[in-house]
Amino acid sequence: MLADGHPHRARVVALLTAAETVMAHRAALVGPIGMDLQLTAPRILNVNDATNLLGGVGDVLQARSTGADVTHLGSLASVGCYIDDAQIEQIAYRRMDGANISYSVRLWPLS
Q: What distances in angstroms separate CA 41 from CA 7, 65, 72, one per listed residue?
């Protein structure tokens, strides 16, 4: 998802931009966390299944410590809401009908 030229690059950049705004004066979450993902999309549209969406969002919002080349993301390459998506121990997911595709993500510490 973070590779240069990935088909979902625009979504990745939008998510990282929103995360950068929220995390501007916060440190990355440490310890166990929860994630709530709400997807709104037209019912007739075939979007990725819940596990792929959750995994993609989880990967994008974690700090980048793998050494992958993400220089094409510019300042967004340093945005991370938590250290590693393995911290996610509680998940809620909902899909709702709507005219346009959108989603919201909420993270919280469990400890």
A: 18, 32, 29
- Which residues partner with 29 through β-bridges? 82
Q: Which residues, in sequence order, are bridge partners of residue 51?
A: none
Q: What are the pLDDT digits (tens) for 47-105?
A: 668 898 899 999 999 987 666 777 788 888 888 999 999 999 999 999 999 988 888 99
Q: What is the pTM of this model?
A: 0.86
DSSP character at residue 4: T
Strand, helix or coil at 110? coil
Is residue 20 within a helix (H) or strand (E), and if so which, with residue range? helix 9-22
Give the single-character DSSP code of 40.
E
Q: Helix, strand or coil for residue 79?
A: coil
